[in-house]
Write a structure and sequence with these properties.
Elements (H helix, E strand, L loop, with lengths): L5 H33 L7 E4 L2 H11 L5 H4 L4 E7 L5 H11 L1 E7 L14 E6 L2 H6 L9 E7 H13 L9 H33 L13 H11 L10 H16 L5 H8 L3 H12 L16 H12 L1 H6 L6
Parallel strand pairs: 2-5
Antiparallel strand pairs: 1-2, 3-4, 4-5
Helix pairs in contact: 1-4, 6-7, 9-12, 11-12
């Protein structure tokens, strides 16, 4: 066994710190790009370098005196927060296909049905060979921990970290029940987020019911209105980017006092002026931008915005027409 020399370990830590930080940043960048390519939206991906005090405490606690830089595997750390529990499987698959996996542990699988507490998925990884080549080998042997959690699990972890309970046995008995109840509430919150997303998808998928005059403007009624008024438009309700666009135009309509379907129909009229704007914009391509299709410069949201600009000078000041 090597002699435990904190001063020597600190000097080696200072020398290696920048490489570990670069590793964590690289891992986070790889994950962000992979999730975007896969269409998986996650919460903030954060990374950190374990500070020296935490590093030395772990060496002593775990008795990693022999080669601590090899045995402490979370000097570089990355955390992925899944917005919905059902996204976890996709996130795990991407991590497994993107890195050299040294270990994998699902801490939630160790709980009995009556137990609650810290839940997370932990990977220890190294960079894949192409990334090592790009880094010129400096990061080849370094390890990084990746933690995958839901929002609820992450909230519980942060509370647990502040209270500094390393294991259930360290929790005072008078607090254990309350902390278990809190853990259960976070789990319920995760399930409710999932249920709300499923209900949200169902609402947007409903195109059978005709939009009724007087219905309030929201993303569900506007989605149905667009499906029925513009059958040439292929509306992808599973695209969260499109949902964001719908939400944006809803806010704009309501801000300028178009609060229901009757008001929207009045703004649109017979759309002859919108057609003229569309035709003029198509003739002016590419100066006016990329058209939606060969026959339509504007998609339905664009047409609604043009109609609003034609009828509302205040809106036109904010979002001018492409063709005056």
């Amino acid at each position: 066994m090597q002699r435990f020399d904190p001063a020597d370990i600190e000097a080696r830590y200072v020398q290696a710190a920048r490489d570990y930080e670069r590793l964590a940043e690289k891992v986070a960048d790889i994950l962000a790009a992979a999730f975007e390519d896969a269409g998986i939206k996650v919460g903030p991906i954060t990374y950190r370098l374990k500070d020296f005090r935490s590093f030395i405490e772990k060496i002593v606690r775990k008795r990693y005196f022999d080669d601590p830089f090899e045995r402490v595997e979370d000097i570089a750390g990355v955390r992925v927060r899944c917005l919905f529990p059902s996204d976890t499987d996709g996130v795990v698959r991407i991590i497994k296909s993107s890195f050299d996996i040294l270990s994998f542990e699902d801490l939630s699988s160790s709980f009995e049905e009556h137990e609650f507490g810290y839940q997370s998925i932990h990977f220890i990884v190294r960079l894949p060979r192409p990334e090592i080549v790009k880094a010129r080998g400096r990061l080849a042997r370094l390890k990084c921990e990746i933690q995958v959690r839901t929002l609820g699990q992450d909230a519980w972890s942060e509370v647990n970290h502040v209270l500094n309970y390393k294991s259930p046995a360290s929790i005072p008995p008078q607090l254990r029940r309350r902390l278990n109840a809190l853990s259960a509430l976070f789990e319920v919150a995760d399930r409710e987020f999932e249920a709300i997303r499923a209900a949200h998808s169902e609402v947007l998928a409903d195109t059978c019911d005709a939009v009724r005059p007087g219905e309030a403007i929201n993303i569900a009624t506007l989605s149905r209105f667009i499906s029925q008024r513009y059958p040439w438009f292929e509306l992808n309700r599973d695209d969260m980017g499109w949902v964001s666009v719908l939400a944006g135009v809803c806010e704009e309509l309501i801000r300028y006092n178009v609060e229901d379907i009757d008001g929207l129909l009045q703004v649109l009229g017979d759309e002859r002026k919108v057609d003229m704007q569309d035709e003029a914009a198509r003739r002016a391509v590419p100066a006016t931008g990329e058209p939606y299709s060969e026959d339509h410069f504007y998609d339905p949201v664009g047409r609604i915005r043009v109609a609003l600009a034609l009828t509302c000078p205040e809106y036109r000041d904010v979002r001018p027409l492409l063709i005056d």
